[in-house]
Design a protein that fits this description.
By secondary structure, the protein is an alpha+beta fold. It has 14 helices and 7 strands. The strands form 2 sheets. Strands 4-6-7-3-5 form a 5-stranded antiparallel beta sheet. Strands 1-2 form a two-stranded antiparallel ribbon.
């Protein structure tokens, strides 16, 4: 027991020393960030107030390092991302905000159902926005170092958001990775795409539905959204996969896929339309297979996960059907 006690004492003492060293290293890193911010033109008084509550968040770094390793299937993913209750709420929200969504949809050339589908996927219609201090989260992730340039860029973007007066430091909350508001924009995306739709001087993606919807629509429109098209369709293969050259992610006309044995999911021929599409298999040949169009590739700019893109498209289809 004495040996065990001494061992535990040594472990806790070592952890305490590491923690103290880490805390000092983080303080020094924050000083560097503050100096860099001053060089970028932020005033000393502004930075004094903003930096006052920045703290190291080990849980944020742990979350970044411990991304889920277990491979879930697309079916599993869709069951959690597009359950019946979410579809019902999406339809309710679409009807509730119909006038506003129609106006914004027409202005930006984005169908309202896709705006609502992204809103629902990102924050559960604004209910789950994250409670982490965005500045502390980004500073901690930059300090950890693996993607320092990315998180520093977003840290300085967050400072710009505060300086422009879109929110206050105590309300600048988001996910552990620094994604913010009902659209879950990273700060750089906020600066590029967020919209003050109601003209009150603030791009409020945390509380203002008009700004939220317009910001989502502006992102899609800016990245090449086609309001006359949809996202894709689930299909069947009737010939071996090797014939499709999928390793190159070929973007071919529907006629090409028809000629190579791809059919609608119900077995009927593909539409006779002048549209190009890619064939994707998120879970391989035995899983769901889709032909996806330009709008799907736009969704992939929002989030590089094919699962995410399919879930947004699937939710939009169910919204369209009304259930």
């Amino acid at each position: 027991m004495r040996v065990i006690s001494l061992f535990l004492l040594l472990v806790f003492s070592t952890a305490s020393v590491c923690s103290e060293q880490e805390a000092k290293a983080f303080e020094a890193y924050i000083d560097t960030l503050k100096s860099d911010a001053q060089l970028k033109g932020f005033s000393a008084d502004f930075l004094e107030d903003v930096f006052d509550d920045i703290t190291f968040r080990p849980s944020v770094v742990k979350s970044d390092k411990n991304q889920p390793e277990k491979k879930i299937t697309l079916d599993d993913y869709l069951s959690t991302r597009v359950p019946d209750w979410k579809v019902e709420q999406a339809v309710t929200h679409l009807n509730e905000h119909k006038t506003l969504l129609t106006e914004i949809g027409q202005k930006y050339g984005v169908q309202p159902r896709f705006i609502v589908a992204l809103w629902g996927n990102e924050s559960n219609f604004g209910r789950i926005q994250g409670s982490h201090s965005v500045l502390s989260a980004l500073a901690s992730l930059a300090f950890e170092g693996r993607r320092e340039a990315l998180f520093k860029k977003n840290f300085f973007a967050a400072l710009t958001i505060l300086r422009e007066g879109h929110t206050t430091v105590d309300k600048l909350k988001g996910s552990w990775a620094g994604a913010m508001g009902q659209s879950q924009f990273m700060p750089v995306s906020f600066l590029n795409y967020a919209v003050d739709y109601d003209g009150d001087g603030k791009k409020d993606i945390w509380n203002n539905p008009a700004d939220v919807f317009a910001s989502i629509a502006n992102y899609l429109s800016s990245e090449g959204w086609d309001e006359n098209g949809t996202w894709g369709r689930q299909v069947l293969l009737t010939s071996p996969i090797a014939e499709y050259g999928l390793a190159k992610k070929a973007y071919k006309p529907l006629s090409h896929w028809h000629d190579n044995g791809v059919t609608r999911y119900n077995g009927a021929p593909l539409p006779n339309a002048n549209i190009s599409a890619s064939l994707i298999m998120p879970d391989g040949e035995k899983g769901r297979i889709y032909l996806v169009y330009n709008n799907f590739h736009t969704l992939m700019k929002w989030n590089r996960s094919q699962y995410f893109g399919v879930s947004v498209g699937y939710l939009s289809e169910r919204i369209k059907r009304g259930y």
